[in-house]
Amino acid sequence: PKASQRLLFGWLKHLPSEYFGRVVDVMQQYVTYVLTQPGQNQSDVSAAVMMLQTLWDANNEMGGILPEWCFQSHAISESPELHEHYRQWQHQQSLVFSYCRYPFLLNAGAKRRLLSFDAELRTQVASQELLAMLMREGGAVEEAFQQLLVFRVRR
After folding, report:
1. Beta strands in 18-63 (DSSP E)
2. Is residue 145 predicted with pLDDT exceeding 80?
3. How confident is the prediction for the chain on average, in pLDDT?
4. Which of 10, 35, 50, 124 pairs with 154 at a CA distance of 20 to 30 A?
């Protein structure tokens, strides 16, 4: 398979950019179809995403003949499962398929939402760790949280 893959992508590299773009577009359409049509096996997306990764790498080797936005997937960026994919990626990076392993697929809005989600997760973890520490040390949990949760609003 590796030799066949090298042959295929070697051939694609020598095609005009519009043909290369068509291959990327077909893969994007497949991903969108599988993710948006009810009853489709969404695990089939992983092969298409890995193919897009190879196309992304080939595009970079060719000096970026296609702009980055051609590789972004609206279906993946707007997927309701994106937060779960992020959580899986954070905990088991190499073991589980996750869209987050392929950042070129995500548009700016999806990346912004993931950064916000990450900040929320880190805040939750930090407060849980603080609560556990206070409970171990016998500290006043309620007083500590009151100090942390004081909001001052100036107008």
Report:
1. none
2. no
3. 87
4. 124
Task: Give the distance, in angstroms, between the CA of residue 132 and the centroid of all CA atoms in the same chain.
Answer: 31
DSSP characters over 74-136: HHHHT-TTHHHHHHHHHH-TTTS--GGG-GGGS-HHHHHHHHHHHHHHHHHHHHHHHHHHHHH
Structure tokens at 127: 């407060």
Contact 14, 61 (CB under 8 A): no
Q: What is the pTM of this model?
A: 0.78
What count of residues does the chain have?
Answer: 155
In the 8-state DSSP scheme, what is residue 138? T
pLDDT at 148: 61
Residue 131 backbone dihedrals phi, psi, to 5 degrees: -60, -45
Q: How far apart are CA 56 and CA 110, in angstroms?
A: 19
Give the mean model confidence (pLDDT) for residues 86-101. 85
